[in-house]
Amino acid sequence: MTKAEEVAAGAGPADAAAFVALLDPILPLGYRLAFGMLRSEADAEDAVQDAALSAWRGFHRFRRDAELRPWFLTIVANRCRSLRRAPWYRVLKLPTLPSAGSLPGEDAEGIDLRRALDALPHGERLLIVLRFYLDLSYDQVGAVIGTSAKAAKSRTHRALARLRLAPEVSSS
Amino acid sequence: VTEIEISDRIRTALGEAEYPSGLSASVAAHLARGGHRNNSARLQALSAAVLALLILAAVAVPRLARDYAGWTSSARTVPVALPSPVISSPSPTPKATPASLPVADLEAAGLATNAGAVTLFDQSATDSGYTVTLIGLYAESSRTIVFLHVEPDLGFPGPVSLAGALDASAMGNRGAPGDYVYRLAAGPRAGADGYADVTIIVFAHAPYAVPKRLPGNWVFTVRVRVQP
């Protein structure tokens, strides 16, 4: 029985500490995903915290043979989508995102790419972030979005085409 | 463009954020505050929702029922359909004409000492669920006195007018219960035989006991002897 299975078997309020210990190694990756999606440190922290709470509340539904990391990243991604959909986020948060020139090594191409990323739908943006910002394999990307590696790769390339970044070499 | 180059560009565009050192602790605290949503928590949420619905129903249902009852009762008393007067026939009704009018009616008309001059009728007209009966008529060349009985007795019908006489409408006086006496300042023109055909019109009825006036017309055409 894995650690996750042990926690899942005895899930209850007293096991929160054990759940946090289980989740702790994944939190940095979840935070990076949230930051890549939201581009705000504060929002990324909130998203990870909310995702952790959601994961804890839904832990009884966690399949014991599943991997904890893609499951948690899926929850983080859903939380980020909810945040970006909120009207107050579009009204208040987007103007506060890092502006042109605020990032190190910023150039016109970087600004254009960031704007293009912002304009992508959530699903395509998620693929780009998972693959190129978190450096996950297509197998792992597929596990997060709930598709096969092949489908994940195909969708990622479509998203890249929309960014006008057609890859010459595809590695898995 | 290779995937490595794409990755570099994406990283540059999105920037890097350092993992907050206190995030793990804050997540643990967040979980401790939020707890684990078990079945009892769901039951509590469901119970709260049901309770809210019950409170809403307790407040709203009686009010809706009251409004509905008021609507239906007003619909019964004030029909919205256009009036369709039932005009009485000029011919004598099958009902037996009463032998005389109540004394109270004659006193209200100032005819207590001249009761024989009043022609008795028993002609009814019904409109808007309200029946007006012409029970007597006294006619001179300069005035007409109309005796009406109303059923149900909700108050004064009228005003009452004499057809063809411009200044002959009037409000009434009470007589016997359910009876009303109207003095009209105009009289019919008698024929050679001393009789005249008279049309009495009772206009829209606005009794005191009904909040809205009852639309309708109650019309009586009778032949009456004109007193000299």
What does this 3D model show about the protein?
The complex is a heterodimer of chains A (172) and B (228). Chain A is mostly helical and 172 residues long. Chain A is 67% helix and 0% strand. The longest helix of chain A is centred in the middle third of the chain and has 18 residues, at 68-85. Chain A is globular. The mean pLDDT of chain A is 80. Chain B is of the alpha+beta class and 228 residues long. Helix content of chain B is 31%, strand content 25%. Chain B contains 4 helices and 8 strands, in the order H-H-H-H-E-E-E-E-E-E-E-E. Chain B has helices at 3-14, 23-34, 39-77, 103-109; strands at 119-127, 130-140, 144-151, 160-162, 172-174, 179-184, 195-202, 218-227. In chain B, strands 1, 2, 3, 4, 5, 6, 7 and 8 form an 8-stranded mixed beta sheet that branches. Chain B is rod-shaped, with a radius of gyration of 40 Å. The model of chain B is unreliable at 88-94 (pLDDT under 50). Chain A binds chain B through residues 11-13, 15-17, 19-20, 23-24, 27-28, 31-32, 35-36, 39, 41, 44-45, 48-50, 52-53, 56-57, 59, 98, 103-106, 109-111, 113-114, 117, 128-129, 132-133, 135, 160, 165-171, and chain B through 1-3, 6-7, 9-15, 17, 19-20, 23-24, 26-28, 30-32, 34-38.
Percentage of residues in strands of chain B = 25-35%
pLDDT under 50 segments of chain A (min length 5)? none
Structural class of chain B: alpha+beta
Radius of gyration of chain B: 40 Å
Mean pLDDT of chain B: 76
In N-to-C order, the SSE pattern of chain A is HHHHHHHHHH
Largest interface: A-B, 52 and 28 residues
The helix-strand sequence of chain B is HHHHEEEEEEEE
Task: Give a quick summary of the entry.
Chain A is mostly helical and 172 residues long. Chain A has 10 helices and no strands.
